[in-house]
Amino acid sequence: MKHTLTRVVTWGQELLAEVVQPGDLTVDLTAGNGQDTLALYQLVGKTGQVVAFDIQTQALLATRDRLLAAGAQIRFQQHDIQPLQCQPGIDLLELSHAEIGTLLPAAPQGIIANLGYLPGGQRELITRPESTVMALEQSCSRLAAGGRLAVVVYPGHPGGAEEGGAVGHFFTTLHDTSFQVLQMKVSNRPQAPFLFVAEKQA
Ligand SMILES: C[S@@+](CC[C@H](N)C(=O)[O-])C[C@H]1O[C@@H](n2cnc3c(N)ncnc32)[C@H](O)[C@@H]1O
Predict the structure, then answer these.
(1) Nearest Cα residue to atom 16 of ligand 1
(2) In CATH, what number is assigned to the domain containing residue 61?
């Protein structure tokens, strides 16, 4: 299928699809309306596990509904969140992605993050540079060898360019013997979202 060339969200999902297999563990750092969580579920299937974080109940409910419609098994933790077990299904966690390091049951093969605000939600509830970078550090440390982390940055909203700078700097700090890092940008639209993909070396 031909994709819109400059839609970087799709390229992020495609680059994860190259390394994620049915039965794998994957993570969505920003569940939002659940489109990325659904894309991960379609890769790992009923025998795999997707862990999805969001700080907004509204986002997790939208994600739950989308995944239930796709036939997924859902577990929803909102309060007093416990470390996860390895088990097939979708774990929806109402928690900041900065907590990823302590909760995962194994090394994920794919991790995705679509930063910014919830489309159709409150625009003030955006991802923030400090917690985003903390989540990316822990994601890189937990990622399986050969696994990939895809991050889409939105520079167009207030605070977005600053977050993009922090994320861009973070990826420059990854040593090239441990990670290959790719950046994809729309050259003739400076406010367009841009993508980073990091692959952990075996
Ligand atoms: C652009 S949306 C995500 C879109 C989503 N991936 C999709 O496919 O629909 C960004 C989401 O990040 C969430 N968010 C903001 N700060 C967060 C944090 N610290 N931890 C987890 N999620 C966060 C927002 O609530 C919002 O739902």
Answers:
(1) 127
(2) 3.40.50.150
Q: Which domain covers residue 67, as residue numbers? A: 8-200
- Tell me the C-alpha distance between 202 and 174, whole Å: 15
Which residues fall within 8 angstroms of residue 108, CB to CB, at 6 or more apart? 24, 25, 26, 27, 51, 142, 143, 144, 147
Q: Which atom of ligand 1 is nearest to the CA of 37?
A: 8
Segment holding 52, helix H or strand E: strand 49-54
What are 39-77's pLDDT values in tens digits? 999 999 999 999 999 999 999 999 999 999 999 999 999
Does some domain include residue 112?
yes
The answer to whether the CB of 84 falls within 8 A of the CB of 105 is: yes
pTM of the model: 0.98
pLDDT in tens, 127-138: 999 999 999 999
Query: Which residue's alpha carbon is at the smallest distance from atom 27 of ligand 1?
Result: 32
CA of 126 to the centre of ligand 1 (A): 7
